Amino acid sequence: MSLMSKLLTSTIVTTTILSAGMSESDLTKYFKKFIVKNPAVEVLDAEIIETKKIDTAKGWEVYLTNMKLKHNGKEVSVPQTVFVNGDLITPVLMNMDTNRNYVNEYKPSLSVEYYKNDHLLFGERDAKHRIVVFSDPQCPFCMEIMPEIMDAVKKYPKTFALYYYHLPLLRIHPVSGTLVRIMHIAQQKGQSDIVYKLYSLKIDARETDVDKIIKAVKDHSGFVVTKEEIEAKEVQEAIANDEALAAKVMVTGTPTVYVDGKWDKMRDKYKKFLP
Q1: Is 71 in the same domain as 140?
Q2: Which one in 135, 146, 176, 180 has a CA-CA gap of 20 to 30 Å to 244?
């Protein structure tokens, strides 16, 4: 069960009447009354990240939000999409003719804070197109498409700039917790190609022995790193910051790809810009 499921524990979808001109205060009340059903979870606040009109659903807007919750003494941010039409609000909007679920169609746009130099993996900063990825090196689909994206950017650095964010899915791939820190260290040392090489690393996804992971990385890529480097506070904070920036734009899975600030659901939009 996902963290979101544990916190919400709600299985009934309701369409609710609220006042027009939805505010963060309105949404906080709505989340408290209709979305969060777990009595152990406190709704602290709601943040509207972005709103968009839905051209194919007349009168409806999508509100991309983050719920600020408190659970077991810890504050967490959980993404929540809702749909608004005048006085109506609902967490799910479906087209019964096409079976289209609009929840799966929208993510927030990226702001300039996602294009900082320390996240530029390949390509030139002033390239024509900017690609942002949130990825886990042990995610099977990431292992399939990330090398393709990196190859394209490396081949056409004036066309593409690739900004990379670590999002290890530890519940599925515990080994990624150590791998992403090694990748971050390699980036900081100017060895971005190590990030590329580690996408072909064959290792048990459940491995947690740091010494074994360090050796596997060295044997596969030649990159040498120490346990002390991996456990450094600044390295752990850097990964935590990547995860926080992912949560800020409602990214929960990998690989998530943006092209020129817009979510690319199919993860291949960059191909139409290939020279």
Answers
A1: no
A2: 146
Query: Based on the structure, what is the number of domains in the chain?
Result: 2
Domain CATH for 147: 3.40.30.10
Torsion, CA 136, CA 137, CA 142, CA 148, rounded to 10: 130
In sign, the C-alpha dihedral spanning 126, 131, 132, 138 is: negative
Tens of each residue's pLDDT in the chain, 275 residues: 445 555 554 434 444 444 446 899 999 999 999 999 999 999 999 999 999 999 999 999 999 999 999 999 999 889 999 999 988 999 999 999 999 999 999 999 999 999 999 999 999 999 999 999 999 999 999 999 999 999 999 999 999 999 999 999 999 999 999 999 999 999 999 999 999 999 999 999 999 999 999 999 999 999 999 999 999 999 999 999 999 999 999 999 999 999 999 999 999 999 999 99
First-to-last alpha carbon distance for the chain, in angstroms, is: 44
Q: Which residues pair with 52 in a beta bridge?
A: 62
CB burial string 21-35: b at 16+ within 10 A, e below: ebeeebbbebbeebb
Please give the residue range of the domain that contains residue 176. 112-273
How far are the Cα atoms of 103, 109, 128, 263 from residue 93, in angstroms, in the given order?
Answer: 7, 20, 36, 19
Q: Which of 70, 105, 140 is the last residue of a domain?
A: 105
Do residues 55 and 174 share a domain?
A: no
Residue finishing a domain among 105, 132, 167: 105
**Residue 27, φ and ψ in degrees, nearest 5:** -65, -35
Residues 121, 93, single domain; the answer is no
Of 167, 142, 133, 139, give the one whose Cα is nearest residue 240. 167
